[in-house]
Amino acid sequence: MKVGVPRETLPGERRVALVPEALAKLKAAGLEILVERGAGTAAAFPDTAYEEAGATIVSADDVYAQADCVVKVQKPTEAEAAKLRSGQALVGLLTPLIDPGLMQQLADRGVTAISLDAIPRTLSRAQAMDVLSSQANIAGYKAVIVAADSFGRYFPLLTTAAGTAKPANVLILGIGVAGLQAIGTARRLGAVVQAYDVRPETKEQAESLGAKFVTLKTAIDATGTGGYARELTAEERAAQQAELNAVIGGMDVVITTAQIPGRKPPVLVTADAVLAMKPGSVIVDMAASALGGNCELSKAGETIATENGVTIISPDNLPATVPVSASQFYARNLQTLLLHLVKDGQLALDPAEEITAGVLITHGGKVVQPATAKLLAPAPAAGGPTA
Prior knowledge:
Elements lengths: L1 E4 L17 H6 L3 E5 L10 H6 L3 E3 L1 H7 L2 E6 L3 H6 L5 E5 L6 H9 L3 E4 L15 H20 L7 E3 L2 E3 L3 E5 L3 H12 L3 E5 L5 H7 L3 E2 L20 H16 L3 E4 L14 H5 L6 E4 L17 E3 L5 E3 L9 H19 E2 L2 E2 L6 H6 E4 L2 E2 L2 H7 L11
C-alpha cells in the first residue's frame, strides 16, 4: 500500500503529517511512502531527510494519483477533496462533527475517511494514537509563552538592586491536557498559578503541578463522557459565572482551554469579567474558533485591546507555531494508528473493533460514524411523529 504525504495548504499550517523518523516502522510493515516535494520544509524536515529515510519525493498531483492512503494534518480543501478518488483512504484531523457536509462529500466520492480527532480517548491502548492530547500539550505550553510575551511585567518574583518585581497571578480555566501543560509551564516561569474546572476530580491534578484549585461555593459536578466536561445548564452557568468573575478580576493573566467536541465552547470570561480586570492584563483564549470562544469578547485568530487596557489573544492554531515538535508528536500518533489498521501491508478495517469504530467516519460510500450521520439526517417534518 502506498501512503501519500501532501504539503499542508491551510495558511499558517507549518506541520507535516509524517516526519522522516516515523518512516522506518511503516516501511517495515510493507508500506511505501510518497512525500510531496517540500511537504516538510516548514517544519524543518527537508526532502533529503525523507529520501534518506526511504520515501519517494513526488509532485502534489502524484501524491493524490498514486497513493492508496493520503495522510494529512488538516482536513482537505475543496480542491484537495476533488483529487481524492473512490476506494482511497484519507487520514487526518477531519473535524466530522463540525463539518459533516464535507464528510458527506467524501462518502459520495467513495473515500474512506479516518479522523484522528475521533480516537477513543478513554481506551488505554489508544493513548499512543491520541493526536488531540499530543497537540493540546503543545498548545498549552505555547499559550503561556504567548501570554508571557504580551504581558508587560515579569512572570516570576524577581529581586534586583532596583527593587522587587512581584510574580504574575495566572489563572488557567479548564484542566484538561492543555490546561495541565499550561499550569506546568506557567509555574516553571515563576508565576503564581490558580486553576479552575467544573470537574472536581481535576483538583488533585492541578495541585500536583503546584496550582491552587479555585473552589466555588456554587460548584456543580459537570463530569461528562470521554474525558470531557458536560455542558452546564443555563442556571448552573449563571450561578458559577458571577462567582468566577470575581476571581478573574484579580488576575494578571487568564488562559482558557475549555472545549466540548462539536459544540460551541462555553463562555467562561464574560465582558463584565474583562471590564473588572486591571489594565495590562492578558487573556489567551485557546478555545476561540468560528464557533466562538471561552471569552465573550474573543475574535478567532485576532488580538484585540479593550478600552480598559486588557489584551485578548485568540490564536487559532498554536501547535502549528511549534512545527517541529508538533509534527514529531503527530507523526508518532499517526504511525501508531496506521500500524494498528494495517495487516499484511494493506488497510484491514474492522468496524466492530473499538478504535476503528471510533475513527472510521465514511466507508463504502456511506457516513458510518453514528454521531456524524445523525447531524446529516433530515429534520423531522413539523407536526410529524417523533421517536
